[in-house]
Predict the structure.
Amino acid sequence: MNSLGPTYVGGVAPLPDLLPDYCSLALTLWPRLERHRLARARHDPLRVASLVARRTTLSRAARLKLLGAPAAEADSPKRDH
């Protein structure tokens, strides 16, 4: 075995968390959001942005940019609810 790299049990590396946690970031920016509603929309930035809409006057594009959503998701023609 090579001692320079990490050793994994079974030879399989653990999968990194590929989905960003928009819920935690939204709670950081808007701390009084309803946690039970955010839990249902954890990995969907469009749903999180629509929940935040009641707390701010920012546009949907601005809310998505604050949440760090990719540009492709921000420009999609999906509904805002």
The radius of gyration is 17 Å.
